[in-house]
Write a structure and sequence with these properties.
This protein is α+β, with helices and mostly antiparallel strands. It has a domain of about 70 residues: YlxR-like (Hypothetical Cytosolic Protein, Chain: A, 2-Layer Sandwich), CATH 3.30.1230.10. About 30% of the residues lie in helices and about 15% in strands. It contains three helices and three strands. It has a three-stranded antiparallel sheet with strand order 2-1-3. Strand 1 and strand 2 form a beta hairpin. Helix 1 runs antiparallel to helix 3. The longest helix is centred in the C-terminal third of the chain and has 18 residues. The termini are far apart. About 20% of the residues are buried. The structure holds zinc ion. The site of zinc ion (ZN) has 8 residues, from loops. The site of zinc ion has 8 residues, from loops.
Length: about 110
Amino acid sequence: MAVKAKSGVTRPRHVPQRTCIVCRQSDAKRALIRLVRDATGRVAIDSTGKRPGRGAYLCHNPECWTLALRRHAIERALKIVALHPDDRAAIEQRGRQLLQETMPTASS
Ligand SMILES: [Zn+2]
């Protein structure tokens, strides 16, 4: 009886492609910010990238954050009906933060 051995086959490591849900720009995992949906349908910004749940990625371009909210890209990507107002506020906040980070400091 011949049992087909699985050895010798180099199993490709599953590396999911991280892509910004708005601009579709792929980048290294580090360069994209993960949003994660938990079991209750709440969405959080996952700064560790290790939280369980369905994830979606946004790049560091503040415009993508604005557009993600405007176009309901997050809802689509995470398969939720609507963002919780608190979660939406947190995402808006992060977008503003990114905007500040990308703007050259006007002071001094
Ligand atoms: Zn983007």
